[in-house]
Amino acid sequence: MKYIYLSLALYIFSFNLYSSDSFSLLDDEVKKQSFSEKKEEFHQWLNKYFDEYEAWRETYVNELDESREKIISKWGVAHASTELIDVNYDSENDSRVIVDYENEYATVSFRVSNERDISDNKIGKVKAGEIELSLEGSDFVIDEISFSKENEEEQKRIIINETEAQLNELDVFADRLVLSNTGVPESFIRKRAHDKKIEILNGAKIRIGKVSEYYSSIRNDSNFSDGVKNENHILISENKENITQRKLSDMQEKTIKSSLPLPEEKNLIIASIDKKNESVESVESVESVESVESVESVESVESVESVESVESVEEPSFLITYKVKLPNNSLKKRAEKYKQKVELESKRWNIDAALIMAIMHSESAFRADAKSHVPAFGLMQVVPTSAGHDVNRQVHKIDKPMSIDALYNPEVNIETGTAYLNILDNRYLSKIENQESRLYCMIAAYNTGAGNVARSFNSDRSTNISKAAVVINKLSPDKVYETLINNLPYDETKGYLKKVNSRISLYQGSTI
Fold it and tell me: What residue stretches are annotated with the Transglycosylase SLT domain (predicted)?
């Protein structure tokens, strides 16, 4: 009988064990399914936010590229407006006004066909935005419009500057998502930002390839005369081309090596990239991340439909250019208009008014209608989908980007920019103890994001700002400033920190 009880006990035990294992397996399956679903939700959420920024960027770049070749065909190079420089062509592309609001001067240029047109070109006054400029008595220079290698390289550098600004903004955008405690793993966000950077870099290479092909097609026209026959000039142009090539290569290398904070993920991606590079021969392979051997490799770019036929390019003509100083104290007068609003927001958000003014000076030269390559808008150059969204969500309790129209409103823009400085000061960078050290980090973070500030101090180049704060708190403010200048990933941000820091004193005390 005891054998029957023993057998029954063993059966019950084995059944319970089997049942326990089955439920355990079921729980594991549910957990796996739940994680898979959650991961998919994360990706959908990330795609939505990154696509918002990408929509802004693509619209801006497409509009820029669409007009670029038309302008090049008449001027030899197409200048574009930035947050500090306004460029305007007339409807026929025969006159151009470039206003440098930061350095307070303008150049006014006219296309003329022959010497008679030059002698007849007696323009009295022109409009530059709200400013009327008198050209009477102004010095001028006459040049032949050129499609030289030097002008080609200048056009490429414009694209590279646009690209660097857009890569920088992706860092800021990713930081906002990481530091907002959305629940999305940081590795997901950084990987998505990294992939988007690679797309932007490959897009820049294709855009540069189109520029090369366009200029080459003009120079190869038998009827075209460049007007540049000096061998030394050609040598200088080739040297500048090498600089352009290295700049794009450096940007790509930095992106590959520093975009992801987790070493194991970086190693996997770099290994994958290196493997792909072995077989890369063409710039057109956008899906691979190849090293840039030549930004001029026109042969590697497929036939470009957008390149107009050579016949559409007019014969080179002359360019007469006047340089005119803006009216005295133009910048100071613009600054005065916003003094009262700045003081109001300074008290509201506990941010030094002199800092706000120095940032506005550096970001837009106090121009309410300023727009950058990012694109960012208005007096404090707010990006709708990053700082604009951050302030909307944390201050206005609205979970969506700010509208462009709102950011062109000086009242809204100053409020938004100052509120974002408060978020940086009291939230993202709050663990930095020394006020002066935190100020330097805040200025840099306003331009490039808290993550890139952290990278400047963390030995593993991670974006962990709490970890960086431990290092920062052991350094003197002067050493913090020096480290930022040496280690920040973008030259633009290094220059920005220097400019803003040096301009704070201009607006302190009674001078504001």
Answer: 345-467
- Domain boundary residue among 253, 285, 314? 314
| Cα 273 from chain centroid (whole Å) | 24
In a domain, 61, yes or no: no
Chain segment 498-511, per-residue pLDDT in tens: 999 999 999 997 55
Where b means 16+ CB within 10 Å and e means fewer, 224-258 reads eebebeeeeeeeebeebbeebbebbeebbeebbeb
Residue with more model confidence, 213 or 42:
213
Distances (CA, A) of 220 to 161, 207, 290, 307: 28, 20, 29, 14
Residues 278 and 154 placed together within one structural domain of the fold:
yes
Domain check: are 248 and 127 in the same one?
no
Asked whether the beta carbons of 328 and 314 are under 8 A apart, the reply is no
- Residue 95 pLDDT greater than 60, yes or no: yes
Domain-terminating residue out of 278, 301, 325 = 325
- Please give the distance of CA 279 from its chain centroid, rounded to a whole number: 30
Contact 216, 72 (CB under 8 A): no
3-state secondary structure at position 118: helix
Q: Are residues 225 and 310 in the same domain?
A: yes
Range(s) of the domain holding residue 117: 85-145+320-325
Are residue 480 and residue 340 in the same domain, yes or no?
yes
Least confident of 140-144, 471-475, 494-498: 140-144
Tokens matching residue 361: 């000076």
**Can you tell me the distance from the alpha carbon of 458 to that of 477, in angstroms, rounded to the nearest whole number?**
17
CA–CA dist 180, 411 (Å, integer): 25
3-state secondary structure 373-425: CCCCECCCCECCCCHHHHHHHHCCCCCCCCCHHHHCCHHHHHHHHHHHHHHHH
Query: Computed over its alpha carbons, how large is the radius of gyration of the chain?
Result: 28
**Strand 131-134 with 125-128, pairing:** antiparallel
In the chain, how many domains are there?
3
223 and 132 within one domain:
no
The pTM score is: 0.72
Judgement on whether residues 161 and 137 belong to the same structural domain of the protein: no
pLDDT digits (tens, 9 = 90+) for 291-345: 334 434 434 434 444 444 444 444 547 889 999 999 888 999 999 999 999 999 9
